[in-house]
Amino acid sequence: MATKGKSSGGNKLGQWLGLALIVILLDQFTKVLILGNFQLGDSRFVTSFFNVVRVHNTGAAFSFLAGAGGWQRWFFVGLGALATIFITVMLRRHGQQTLFATALSLILGGAIGNVIDRLLHGYVVDFIQVHAGGWYFPSFNIADSAITVGAVLLIWDEIRRVRRG
Fold this sequence. Notes:
Helix 2 runs antiparallel to helix 3. The two termini are 33 Å apart. The protein has helices spanning 13-37, 71-94, 98-121, 142-164; strands at 43-47, 50-57, 124-132, 135-136. The chain has one domain (17-33, 52-164). It has a four-stranded antiparallel beta sheet. By secondary structure, it is of the alpha+beta class. The chain is globular.
């Protein structure tokens, strides 16, 4: 007997949450390493285009709202909590769509990783610095990378869906 309302993606929810957990663990592990081995502002040359630094970001992407006076911490924590709920619902409903669910899982793991930082420290620990020819891209972390890759995968998934008609 079939159960009405049961999503076909629900049985894969655990694997998608597991992927998000891997992102969270990698993100937090790397941040612990940075916090334990770098002082704020320290930078170490790695290659001609990559440094490891320790930066504290109280804002969002590209330090958006970093100087807003403190309220942004709780705004971004709340936004992360809402995103977590929304993404978990979407994973439950669409877990059978591999590319879509992979993208959402990466975004979920990254969002939670940065929320953990905001709750523990009041800022997000960034440490990856890419540069070329005197130009420096804003520093970021594993969580930010997962969110970015997830967003690219979402776009790719949508382009594929539209092309299929």
